[in-house]
Amino acid sequence: MNLLSLLERLPGSYAGPAQPEPSPYGLLGVGEGALAAHLAATLVPDTLTRSGTQFVVSSADAGDAARDYADLAEVAGAAARRVSTGGSPDDVDVLVPGGVTTTYHAAQYLAHATGHAREAGDAERLLAELRDRCAPQIEEGNPARDLAWTLWGRTPLLLAAEGADALPHAWQSLLARVGKTLAVPVLGDPLVLVTGAFEAQHEKGDAKVALLLGDVDAVLGVAREVLETRIDEVLHVPYPEGLSPEHSGGYAAQLALWYFGAWVAAYLAERYGLDAGDPPMLTRAQAVLAGEADPEALSAPAADEDVRPTQLVRDWRADATDGPEEEADEDLDGDDLDDR
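Below the sequence we write its predicted structure tokens.
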């Protein structure tokens, strides 16, 4: 099943445990579980607990680290709940699907397991509404496809207000893994970064677009004004509508914005003519780290895999008649590529 079909079927597909575990809670994520844990941090702010339940969310390739964290939690007095995409049966209490959708399934399990079934239901409703607006058959007024077009040929800068730093993490991961595009998260104090980042080399602002993810607070509002004088375009990607104001930036809203980012990334890969699925090199690396493949599998590409650097700017210019014209980023100048 291709990723677009998988995304279309995702809302309402969670079928894992729904009963709450004993509190208090601690939450750690490694490997493919790191992003789900980051998004669920709005529900479980504590990393470690000495009683109650310690959730360790991981994937088979990060099994050693997950096992160590779970063992430490149990020694400290907590009951460990191991959530993973695979591995030894002794290391998995809750099995979730691997790949891009691990984030959804693991995060929804965490919402239910920590007594936040209402938030999990809110998330399902928001995802279903986004699906109805972003599905492939929606050709006119599809917000995900429109945003992907805007990002085509540009380097996105990702910003979010304080308390929503999981969003730049989520969108950077999605744009890289699915959209095959480098995005730069602006972390820490955004004013320090945006006021100085382009002063020595103003041309570095060319072919850049900033995405303000979620709510825009006072600090992000000032950062927006600064960026509008330094880069090509600044866009606000708000939380989906439909939640009460007190929950507007909470778990459900952030998971929904992750889902919207997955649609955008899938359409961006489509726009570049690339497969939105995982690259074979990533699959082989995860298999090696999980102990399921010979390490020598990483030393050479598969027979049908081309790992040579692709001259993206030249490919993009050649395709200029098929989309809007943009100035090429000088970081990717064709002459520089020839001189390497």
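The radius of gyration is 21 Å.
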